[in-house]
Amino acid sequence: MKDILLKDFEIVFNTTEKAQLFFAPGRVNLIGEHTDYNGGYVFPCALTFGTYAAARRIDEPIIRVYSKNFESLGIVEFRLEKLEYEAEHKWANYPKGVIHNFIRKGFIINNGIEVLYDGNIPNGAGLSSSASIEMVTAVLLRNLFDLNIDMVGMARLCQEAENNFIGVNCGIMDQFAIGMGKKDHAVLLDTNTLKYEYVKIALNNASIVIANSNKRRGLADSKYNERRSQCERALKDLQKKLNIRSLGEMNEIQFESNKSLIESEINIKRATHAVYENLRTIKAVEALKVNDFATFGRLMNESHISLRDDYEVTGIELDTLVELAWKQKGVFGSRMTGAGFGGCTVSIVINDDIEEFIKNVGDEYEKRIGYTASFYVAQIGNGAGKL
Ligand code: GLA
Q1: Can 174 be counted among the known catalytic residues?
Q2: What architecture is the 2-198 domain classified under in CATH?
């Protein structure tokens, strides 16, 4: 893999100069969905697949990026002093946004770079291929320009680039998990304080199975921003009486006795999800720590129902995958993961039953939806870094 990347780098950029190699994973979130921009907990882990980058500094103020995943676009080239969003640059706006934000924050990037990217995260699957491109870019910039910034700082910087440059008002979960992930562990992150704890994922004789609905997350970004503003509206209504800074601070009793302050019915539903999903995440992690996989799985199922009925971010494809999964032998729990509106589900399945699980869910999904789903048994890997 490494040799191929280095060779491709030489061919694409027509150079004999040696590149350095970097990697940032994708992520899967086990529970705690749409809580990160509500000041709640999330519980993601880094995957072993992700985005590789081969990069070197050059002596002119030009950035050249190339992705093996979008070869038809060829080399995308832009000047250091002209870092603007350009629709026709497509995926290259992600690295561009990161470089732009580094410079905006006062980091000195006084030369150009050439970067070849190659990712093996299914694109648009909701496993954070874009945050992975952002984070691998941050790590390579830190290295090539000797920048003084830590991993959490880079996660924040990339989140900001996505918010301000790309225009998706995402929370910190993806970039944080990709930067701070640890092999065989999930990260319990309090998005309010950024305090985090690694929790070992030892599922005895079970594994994490990811199912990709292969429904692209079309319209996801605008709906995502809409959900976020609905939650912010609900918070504003609650703040008329309560001294709170986020929905993530609320417990069940406080929420139930005050939810009538929220003016719209829809926003009550959105806030109900945010508050209860946060409480579920805390309970789920407690259960996992004492190897109570049945409770963890039940809470995953409740999470999906809440995302389906109150947050309304699932859709027929994800619901079909999850509802089929619930019926299979050896399944502790199953839910959609990521932003929703397409993308992937995550299930905990007993190892001996995985083969049958994939066959049964896969066959029935294809029958009902008309195209196939793809399945992966997830391996939890380390966060971003130099190879
Ligand atoms: C996307 C965003 C995250 C998070 C999830 C939903 O992945 O990038 O910040 O909000 O959706 O939990």
Answers
A1: yes
A2: 2-Layer Sandwich (3.30)
